[in-house]
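Researcher: Sequence recovery benchmark, item below. Answer with residues only.
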């Protein structure tokens, strides 16, 4: 068997075989599920109906098409406010010597990695009908507007996702040369005018990329609308409802909804790439923008703005940690310190925690192995295949989790390969969704490495495979570790795909938290949420503190 493998590798080549295996993996786990969803959406139980009958039904019934309108409305609104607040915050935090810059950096990262649905129920704890702040203010005659519905969803999305814009703009500012600003200021332009006429045009690609990430994250999120949406229906929730309906569900209609969801996110991605390309300027930062000296008043005002914004975004996380130590009576929290929530969690967390750690670890390891190989193919073996591979891998980032989950169930729910309800389908979903993190990390490092050492190894007879394992992989060790930490932090908090794919035996920590929130057990949910936040944040501490990475690595 080994002799046959060696013969095949010798006759065909090591990297052509690896490239073929990678393509087969992407076809099986990404392209086939997407194609099958599209195919199912064009099918019907009535043989005489049109192939677009399901789409006609969707757009002819207000109950259905209104969810699409609602999703676009809250996503566009959240994107607008995230850009409105995020761009100035990034500018002040990067260009001004504001107070607490280190705190701002840590808080933005913590806000970024905190699962959105945890923030949602935290806002309910604070400002819900029985919320702490709501009841306190009601006692003195002040009635707050409802946190439920579209306004609450937009609020949560804005504060949860503005770090996308913050991080992208911060990175964009660091790529602008100081001479560009100096030229404008020397010609008499004020700081404000220089920003709008010189810096802002150069930041358009960064702002549009951040806006895209906010829009896609908001448009595909399912936890927040379920928790605080109430009667305000959005498309991801409708997909989930139609697919897992207790009366059997309507998988054909769910596939149609999933295709519409995918169409919107893919269209947004293509639109952003077109827009960014039209507004891209070839600049290089030989001398990056410097931190400017400001008057005390301007420094104080900028600091207040950034700290207030970041503080509001961090408030749900702080509330979760504090609530986990408060006595709970269902959704009501009593101002009495207790460890009861953690004691109850300790008795029940075993299976969800072990499942979460196992699935996340295996999926992360798979991403590290495959992602490193894919990165090598893209950089070291450029050509049409490498370009296609790069495009397909990045497409997986644009496929919403709930869409991928529906596609996997449709594809692997019948013989010869039945994966539905198993741990394997969850691991594979996590793997294919987070593969881009490892790929981009490896690509970034390989573009900076000379291939002279690899060429020397091959010339000495080591062979491509052995050279890759003995030479390239050690050189990429820090990039691989960076990709592993990013993949872990993003995988461990996955909810949307897990809601569709999990079964009783494969429940994860995110699902357990979600179930406790839906059931109104806020004390237990807070304790579980604190555990999940720690598991998410600790790898990033290693990434930033010990590997010297910057916050922009998150995006």
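Model:
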């Amino acid at each position: 068997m080994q002799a046959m493998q060696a013969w095949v590798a010798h006759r065909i080549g090591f990297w052509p075989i690896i490239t073929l295996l990678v393509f087969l993996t992407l076809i099986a786990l990404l392209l086939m599920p997407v194609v099958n969803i599209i195919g199912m959406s064009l099918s019907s139980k009535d043989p005489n109906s049109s192939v677009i009958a399901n789409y006609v039904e969707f757009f002819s019934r207000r109950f259905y098409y209104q969810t699409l309108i609602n999703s676009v409305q809250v996503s566009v609104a959240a994107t607008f406010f995230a850009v409105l607040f995020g761009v100035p915050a990034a500018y002040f935090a990067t260009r001004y010597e504001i107070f607490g810059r280190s705190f701002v950096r840590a808080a933005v990262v913590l806000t970024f990695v905190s699962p959105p649905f945890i923030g949602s129920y935290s806002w309910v704890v604070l400002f819900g009908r029985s919320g702490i702040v709501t009841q306190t203010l009601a006692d003195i005659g002040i009635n707050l507007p409802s946190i439920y519905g579209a306004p609450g969803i937009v609020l949560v999305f804005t504060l949860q996702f503005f770090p996308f814009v913050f991080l992208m703009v911060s990175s964009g500012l660091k790529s602008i040369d100081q001479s560009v600003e100096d030229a404008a200021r020397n010609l008499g332009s004020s700081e404000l005018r220089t920003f709008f006429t010189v810096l802002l045009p150069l930041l358009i690609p960064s702002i549009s990329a951040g806006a895209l990430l906010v829009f896609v994250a908001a448009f595909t999120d399912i936890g927040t609308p379920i928790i605080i949406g109430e009667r305000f229906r959005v498309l991801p929730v409708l997909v989930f409802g139609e697919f897992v309906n207790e009366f059997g569900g309507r998988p054909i209609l769910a596939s149609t909804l999933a295709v519409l969801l995918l169409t919107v996110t893919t269209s947004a991605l293509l639109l952003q790439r077109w827009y960014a390309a039209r507004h891209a300027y070839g600049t290089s930062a030989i001398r990056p923008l410097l931190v400017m000296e400001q008057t005390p008043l301007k420094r104080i005002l900028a600091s207040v703005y950034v700290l207030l914004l970041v503080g509001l975004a961090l408030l749900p996380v702080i509330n979760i940690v504090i609530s986990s130590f408060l006595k709970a009576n269902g959704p009501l929290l009593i101002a009495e310190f207790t460890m009861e929530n953690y004691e109850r969690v300790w008795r029940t967390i075993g299976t969800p925690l072990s499942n979460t750690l196992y699935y996340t670890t295996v999926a992360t390891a798979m991403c590290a192995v495959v992602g490193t190989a894919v990165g090598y193919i893209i950089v070291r073996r450029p050509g049409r295949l490498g370009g296609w591979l790069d495009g397909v891998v990045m497409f997986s980032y644009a496929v919403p989790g709930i869409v991928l989950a529906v596609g996997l169930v449709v594809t692997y729910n019948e013989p010869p390969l039945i994966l539905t309800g198993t741990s394997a389908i969850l691991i594979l979903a996590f793997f294919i969704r987070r593969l881009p993190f490892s790929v981009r990390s490896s690509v970034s490092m390989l573009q900076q490495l000379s291939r002279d050492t690899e060429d020397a190894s091959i010339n000495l007879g080591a062979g491509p495979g052995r050279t890759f394992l003995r030479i390239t992989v050690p050189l990429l060790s820090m990039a691989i570790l960076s990709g592993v930490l990013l993949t872990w932090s993003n995988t461990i908090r996955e909810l949307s795909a897990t809601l569709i794919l999990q079964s009783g035996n494969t429940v994860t920590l995110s699902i357990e938290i979600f179930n406790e929130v839906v059931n109104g057990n806020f004390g237990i949910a807070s304790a579980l949420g604190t555990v999940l936040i720690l598991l998410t944040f600790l790898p990033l501490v290693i990434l930033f503190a010990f590997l010297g990475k910057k916050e922009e690595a998150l995006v």
